[in-house]
UniProtKB/TrEMBL annotation:
Domain Carrier: 31-106
Family annotation (Pfam families): NAD_binding_4, PP-binding
A molecular-function term among this protein's GO annotations: phosphopantetheine binding
Protein name: Carrier domain-containing protein
Keyword hit for Phosphoprotein: yes
Keywords for the protein's UniProt record, in alphabetical order: Phosphopantetheine, Phosphoprotein
Highest taxon of the lineage: Eukaryota
InterPro entries: ACP-like_sf (IPR036736), FAR_NAD-bd (IPR013120), NAD(P)-bd_dom_sf (IPR036291), PKS_PP-bd (IPR020806), PP-bd_ACP (IPR009081), Ppantetheine_attach_site (IPR006162)
PANTHER family assigned: BETA-ALANINE-ACTIVATING ENZYME, CARRIER DOMAIN-CONTAINING PROTEIN
Lineage, top ranks: Eukaryota, Fungi, Dikarya, Ascomycota, Pezizomycotina
Record's keyword annotation contains Lyase: no
Amino acid sequence: MLGQGKITEVVDRVVNLRDMLAVAAPEQHSSIVLRMVQSTIAKALGHDSAHHMDTTRHLEEFGIDSLTPVLVRNHLATMTDLTLPSNIALLHPNLQSLSEFLLFQLRDEIDSDSSSAPGGSATPKATTSGVSSDIQFNNVAKRNTASFDCPKTAFVIGPTGFVGAFMVREFLERGIIVYCLVRASSDIQAEERMLTNIKQYILWNPNYEPLLKTVVGDLSQPLLGLGEGLFDDLAN
């Protein structure tokens, strides 16, 4: 069994959570993942220790800035080998919720790997051959997937910041047309600011060009500093 001392020892170096869970008792999985998440958040915030961090406290109360979520995502992705969104730290209310999500994803990945491995015992396909004829399935509502379609356009405020650059890139990578609100004196300057910001983080791909649209405006002004007509067009 993986003892308490072992859990504390590994939090100060990059580890593979899958390997740890593989050798630990199932009842220890939750505490192992939670301590890893605690350590990751503490390091991203510059804290010397993670022990004082309340696992039920709202994450925003720890003083997370625009850079922290990306740092947290990168470290958690390294530890888990999972593909995680850049704002993973903002999608969950507290450390407990975040760790439970990661543990669920890890177990799902591990189970998938086990069932697809040579000699693995995949779950048999369910059939209705042995079900009583009294039970009917034709009245079961089918899941409506129309509402889960990927959006065609997105409007991003604050795209010239660190997080904004990664957010815009995520949309562009999915083929979504992105309208970016940029404070500038002209359309040309707005486009230059946007491209400079994305390129400095090595996120630019020439294929993104037809999808990236810049809009000159100001978040502090009424209607975002846009004319009423343009504002209505974007809103619609």
